[in-house]
Structure formats: C-alpha cells, structure tokens
Amino acid sequence: MLMLWMPKKSSWCLLALAVVLTSLFAGGHQQDVVLAKDMKFKLHSRDLMPLVGFGTYQVRGADLIKDVLDKSFAAGYRLVDSAAVYGNEKEIGIALKELLPKHNLTRKDIFITTKLSPDDQGEKAYDALEKSLKNLDCEYIDLYLIHWPGKHGVNASKEENSVARDLSWQHMVKGVKNGLVRNIGVSNYNVRHMKELLGNNHGIKPAVNQVEWHPHYHQPELLELCKKEGVLLQAYSSLGGSDNRELLDNAEVKTIAGKLGKTPAQVLLRWALQQNIAIIPKARSQKHIEENIDLNFTIPEEDMKTLSSFSQKKYAWDPDTIA
Ligand SMILES: NC(=O)c1ccc[n+]([C@@H]2O[C@H](COP(=O)([O-])OP(=O)(O)OC[C@H]3O[C@@H](n4cnc5c(N)ncnc54)[C@H](OP(=O)(O)O)[C@@H]3O)[C@@H](O)[C@H]2O)c1
Ligand SMILES: *[C@@H]1O[C@H](CO)[C@@H](O)[C@H](O)[C@H]1NC(C)=O
Ligand SMILES: *[C@@H]1O[C@H](CO)[C@@H](O)[C@H](O)[C@H]1NC(C)=O
Ligand SMILES: *[C@@H]1O[C@H](CO)[C@@H](O)[C@H](O)[C@H]1NC(C)=O
C-alpha cells in the first residue's frame, strides 16, 4: 500500500519508507518484553550487570567448564558466577581464552563474579583477591563478593566474625581503588549484616547481595533494604539447588507452568526475574542451559502471589547463626 504513492527510483523515499516501517514496529507490542539476556541492572559504579547469569557451583574440570561456558555463551549468557571455593577459577580463565574469540566477544562483553573464601576472611582478603584475579588470568574482576559473613574456624557466635568481615571489606575497597576489581558486594548477608556494613561506611556501598532465594525461601525485609540502598539482590538455588527436586516437582509450580506452556524451571526463574531479582541458574545440558535464559513471558499477578506464598524452609547454610 505504501509503495503506491512512492515515486520510482527515489532512494530518499525508500529511506523515508524504512523510517516509517521501523517506527511502526518499534512502537508495536512486540517490543514490550525485554529478552532475559538483555536485562541489566545499573550498579553504583554505573556498570551494567546482566540480570541472568550462569552458576558454576560443583562444575569442575577443564573440559566440563569449557563445554558449559561454550553452550551458555551461545545461548546468550554474559555473566559467569564463580567463587574461590568452587575450585574452578583457573579452568574458567583457560576456557575464556578460547571461547571469547570463538563467540566474537571481548573481555568487556562478559561479567565475571568470584568470591572471597571464608578461609581468607579478614587480613588475608587482599591477597585472596589478587589470587583469584591471577587464577582467572584476566585484567580485572567485575564483581568480588564476601562469600559468607563468618570467618572459617571462628565460633559463629563470636564478635570476631564481624571484625573479620569489616576488615575484608576494607581490603576489597582497596582492590577497587587499585583496579583489581570493578565492583564489590556480599553474599549470604541478612538484614543485620547488611545494616552493619552500610553503617561502617568505608566509602563504597555493596553492589550486590547474593542470597538463597526461591518460593520456599525469600525475605521481603531484605529485598526492601536492598532496593532502598540500590543494592542488587541476586538469587541462588532458584531451582532448589543440586539434587533437590522439591520445587521442580511442586504441584502448584507445575500447574502454572502447564498453563503458561513453560517448564517448572522457567516459572521458578521468571518468578524472581519478574521482581527484578537477578538469577544465576546452574545447568549442564544444552536443553537446560537454553531454557533457563528463555524467559520472555509474564507470570500473571495471581500466580506470582501463589508462588510467593509457599511455606518457608531453608535449603542452604543459614547466616542468621553468624554474629
Ligand atoms: N553464594 C552462595 O553461598 C551460593 C550457594 C549456592 C549456589 N550459589 C550459586 O548459585 C548457582 C545456582 O545455584 P545451585 O547450583 O545451588 O542450584 P540451582 O541453580 O537452583 O539448581 C541447579 C540444579 O537444577 C538442575 N537444573 C538446571 N536447569 C534445569 C531445568 N531447566 N530443568 C530441570 N532441572 C534443571 C541442575 O541439573 P543439571 O546440572 O544436571 O542440569 C542442577 O542440579 C550456583 O551454581 C552458584 O554459582 C551460591
Ligand atoms: C517476547 O514475547 C512476546 C509475547 O509472547 C512476543 O510478542 C515477542 O515477539 C517476544 N519477543 C522476542 C524478541 O522473542
Ligand atoms: C563480531 O562483532 C563485530 C563487532 O560487534 C561485528 O562487527 C562483526 O560482524 C562480528 N562478526 C561475527 C562473525 O559475528
Ligand atoms: C561457641 O560459643 C558458644 C558461646 O560461647 C558456646 O556455647 C559453644 O559451645 C561454642 N561452640 C563451639 C563449637 O565451640
């Protein structure tokens, strides 16, 4: 139809037509849902952090790491979540050398998180950060987290834990100043630990708090505090963790999944993402890796409410025990 009034051989008109068509599609309903792989959060540093990442707990060995990262980059993941205690930083570093060029990516296109071991909490924190950077063998780490509010080997009820994590934070602030890491944050911090850290005020606020978070365990008060302080809450064990099918087999999760034509895993991940909570699912098979980032759908409000009203129980370690 538009072609009818268009004079032939006029490239100017072709350009105008292209502009009209582009704006028609851009304004259309198709653009309403941002793809999960493109969802990002602006951290205090102004760095953009992908909301969907790839978890690597218990994913060890050079071949397995290379295989899952290859599949995850192909599927669109751009964030890799590691930790000193996962024992896979070196293998990730080696894999990146080969996989970045293979996927036409450079270092700045991906986001690498790793974590301070509870063994190195306190005075050893700076050396531990340097060691992780050396293991990963890249110019900088995007995000370094205090893995756990306690110090390994110290009685959980002791004040020494609080002193140690505060010292860790000061070393991590130095790590940012010296360019080893771009953003620093915490993991497994409860409201009390968060308030303590914010109150100590060492010049840099935590960028992220990575915590256990799924329909059977979520903490509205912690989410509220993080939002107020501009701290991104990042969920772990969204699917219930390894070797635990309780959430994946849950009847209500399955009903909602069936209704929406999605898998239970996709519903569990979308439930978090739809609340602007970041996710880092772990998977080994190509099918799971692909479906865990294929989250372009909306869970209706009533189903969100159902998922948010499950009985509460904790699967992973409990930071409330740490002074
Ligand atoms: N900061 C912390 O203290 C902490 C603690 C725990 C975890 N994390 C981080 O969070 C990441 C994720 O948590 P997680 O590893 O505990 O567990 P998760 O992501 O909740 O679940 C992983 C399990 O679900 C299976 N799975 C993955 N995709 C699936 C799908 N689409 N359908 C059915 N099953 C699926 C996986 O099996 P397959 O591998 O066989 O596919 C694996 O056994 C970790 O890898 C780690 O990076 C951090
Ligand atoms: C995202 O999902 C919506 C709703 O189903 C659909 O209209 C849109 O085309 C999808 N976008 C992409 C890029 O797949
Ligand atoms: C690689 O990325 C560059 C820059 O984004 C782009 O110009 C080029 O076409 C890409 N090449 C391939 C093979 O995808
Ligand atoms: C930790 O300290 C508490 C309080 O001092 C004490 O009751 C408990 O036995 C200690 N636990 C261990 C494992 O030492």
Automatic annotation (TrEMBL):
The record marks K115 as: Lowers pKa of active site Tyr. Substrate binds at H147. Residues 53-310 form the NADP-dependent oxidoreductase domain. The active site is at Y86 (proton donor). InterPro entries: AKR, Aldo/ket_reductase_CS, NAD(P)_OxRdtase_dom_sf, NADP_OxRdtase_dom. Pfam families: Aldo_ket_red. The keyword Oxidoreductase applies. The keyword Ligase does not apply. Keywords: NADP, Oxidoreductase, Signal. GO terms for molecular function: oxidoreductase activity, acting on the CH-OH group of donors, NAD or NADP as acceptor. Residues 1-30 form the signal peptide. Belongs to the aldo/keto reductase family. PANTHER family: 2,5-DIKETO-D-GLUCONIC ACID REDUCTASE (PTHR43827), NADP-DEPENDENT OXIDOREDUCTASE DOMAIN-CONTAINING PROTEIN (PTHR43827:SF3). This is NADP-dependent oxidoreductase domain-containing protein.
